[in-house]
Amino acid sequence: MAMKAPKGTKDMLPQDAYRWQYIEEEWAKICSEYGFREIRTPVFESTDLFNRGVGDTTDIVQKEMYTFEDMGGRSITLKPEGTSPAVRAFIESNLYAETQPTKIFYDTPCYRYEKPQAGRLREFHQFGIENFGTPSMMADAEIIALGHDFLKRMGIEDIELHISSVGCRKCRPVYRKVLQDYLRPKYDCLCETCKSRFDKNPMRILDCKSPEDKEAVKDAPMMIDYLCEDCRSDFEDLKSYLDAMGIEYVVDPSIVRGLDYYTKTAFEFITTKIGAQGTVCGGGRYDHLIEEVGGPDMPGVGFGLGKERLLLLMEACGHDFGAAPSPQIFLAWIGDEAKLYALNLLHELRGKGIRADMDTKERNLKGQMKYANKLGAEYTAVIGGDEVASGEITLKNMSTSEQTKIRREDLADAL
Ligand code: ATP
Ligand code: MG
């Protein structure tokens, strides 16, 4: 039986790879313009990192992790997200002892055991950025601005920035009680998962996708109305910074990034263009995560942006990715002597950075030209005894059929 890719995974075929390369280059470019530097961390980590760094009341930790025991008896997990590994590396390499903030970005595969559907995979890919070490909302505004500008550069229309505040260790417990009091009479209508969240993480109930639960929380009190003075003034700061940069937003109190370590700022970029999986980018502030993972008491803020959803959205917006690069020149040959000559020339052109190609299947001339057409070569040149003797090549422009004679030594420059 023919083998198939595991459920929830996708091959990236050569005809699509250039789209990925396109967004990856643009991503690295904008991050460097904003002063973020790249970090790469392993694909797997100790399971314990995610239990602490993502939080054991979250969907990710409760039901989505790829966890296994390795041959040395260690519990290992394929990374479900990029922030905790970045925090782990930050602490382990003592980066916190250097001048702060630490501004980093990443581009990483992630693994979550989910029900696959459009825009939801088991192996997917994320761009992300983090600012470690800044308590000021300047950092939050910068992170959001980068996400906003990146999506704009990618030609995304019909996307809204939703922002909120999820409070802090001071005001959240107060709100939590208010929310529990509101939900208690509706407890029996909640789904099983939400019943289990009631004590440990009731805010996650606001984020539940089941229709009954959605109905139950319809008129629930919102964190944003219970912020302490500090959180309220930070939220005002954030809005004023976004206003100063001319970035539009919607205050949406239903945005819940239900991790215990999330504090204050929460935001999502949301679209209706790609169906149910409309959150392309989500992030927020996590002032206790670094400490929770064993580091110093230092704040952080960041986001993750799904590359598959980004690409779906770019396609839905009719983004022009340009064409995949094709050969600038294709060399065909007739006869063994010309073959060696052409091979020598091919190698020389490639050495000069020209996209040059030949037929490795050694077809006859007709076959070679058919192949050149298939590759979409811009120019072709047929090398025969005359060309070898004279050192002069006849270049054929494949779109105009125009022919020009050119000295071999001038060929690279002409191309
Ligand atoms: P959702 O509510 O859609 O499950 P999430 O809150 O789990 O999203 P985050 O953990 O914030 O998502 O991840 C950041 C981004 O990564 C998301 O906004 C989305 O673009 C992308 N993403 C998350 N899970 C998947 C997945 N299973 N497949 C593809 N992309 C994903
Ligand atoms: Mg999810």
Multimer state: single chain
Name the helicity range: 25-40%
Per the CATH scheme, the topology name of the largest domain is BirA Bifunctional Protein, domain 2
Number of domain modules: 2
Shape: elongated
Strand content: 15-25%
Residue stretches low in confidence (pLDDT < 50, at least 5 long) are none
Please summarize the sheet with the most strands: 8 strands, mixed
Give the strand line-up of the largest sheet. Answer: 1-5-6-11-10-9-7-8
CATH superfamily of the largest domain: Bira Bifunctional Protein, Domain 2
Q: Which distinct ligands sit in these coordinates?
A: adenosine-5'-triphosphate, magnesium ion
Which CATH class of the largest domain applies here? Alpha Beta
Number of strands: 16
Sheet/helix structural class: alpha+beta
What descriptors fit this protein?
alpha+beta, 16 strands, Rossmann fold, about 425 residues, 2 domains, binds adenosine-5'-triphosphate, five-stranded mixed beta sheet, BirA Bifunctional Protein, domain 2, binds magnesium ion
Topology:
Elements: H1 14-33, E1 37-38, E2 44-46, H2 47-53, H3 59-64, E3 67-69, E4 75-78, H4 83-92, E5 102-111, E6 123-132, H5 137-153, E7 159-165, H6 172-183, H7 192-200, H8 211-216, H9 229-244, E8 250-251, E9 263-271, E10 279-285, H10 289-292, E11 300-306, H11 307-316, E12 329-333, H12 336-351, E13 356-357, H13 365-375, E14 379-383, H14 385-390, E15 392-397, E16 403-407, H15 411-414
The protein binds adenosine-5'-triphosphate and magnesium ion.
The site of adenosine-5'-triphosphate has 18 residues, from strand 6, strand 10, strand 11 and helix 11.
